[in-house]
Design a protein that fits this description.
Layout lengths: L7 H20 L23 E2 L18 E11 L2 E10 L3 H14 L3 E3 L6 E6 L4 E9 L7 E9 L7
Antiparallel strand pairs: 1-2, 2-3, 3-7, 4-5, 5-6, 6-7
């Protein structure tokens, strides 16, 4: 019997969602201005229906990045995943990738998140086990010359567990 507080299910969900992100990133439009304003249906399976976001949502316990001129490049909301609700957001930032991750490490730690050790310098994972929340942040160089970095923030809220 597995302990529902274990981060393993969330980590598996994040790994599978990272694969979905890679596929989605290659199809994502280059700018928010070119995005349609309506939700889109990418599959007939209701668990994977997405809603395209036109502006950054306010996420519980996630501070808004305070960097210079960070903009939402694209965003998707998955309301019915088996693992829970998920937001997948891509931002451009005028700060380099290390500054973005350092800012999130500090901000998440001070907001009650438990940082998960990582061997990658471009990735950050954190959990709020009591709330069933997991955040995953990946940074890379920006594809646009006026920005230094691009970062992806994936926010997963697991459904409440029923205790027996």
């Amino acid at each position: 019997m597995s302990d529902w507080h274990s981060p393993a299910p969330a980590m598996r969900a994040l790994a599978s969602s990272l694969l979905a992100f890679v596929a989605w990133q290659s199809m994502a439009p280059p700018s928010p201005a070119q995005q349609p304003a309506q939700p889109r249906r990418t599959t007939t399976d209701p668990r994977y229906v997405t809603q395209e976001l036109q502006k950054a949502p306010e996420l519980p316990y996630i501070p808004t990045y305070a960097g210079r001129g960070a903009i939402l490049m694209s965003g998707l909301y998955y309301p019915h995943l088996q693992e829970g609700q998920c937001y997948h957001l891509r931002y451009l930032s005028r700060e380099d990738a290390r500054q973005v991750l350092d800012w999130y490490r500090s901000a998440l730690s001070s907001n009650g998140w438990k940082l998960v050790p990582s061997k990658s310098e471009s990735m950050l994972t954190a959990n709020r086990d009591n709330d069933g929340l997991t955040v995953f942040i990946v940074t890379q160089r920006s594809p646009r010359p006026e920005y230094k970095s691009m970062f992806m923030l994936r926010y997963l809220q697991s459904p409440p567990k029923i205790q027996k």
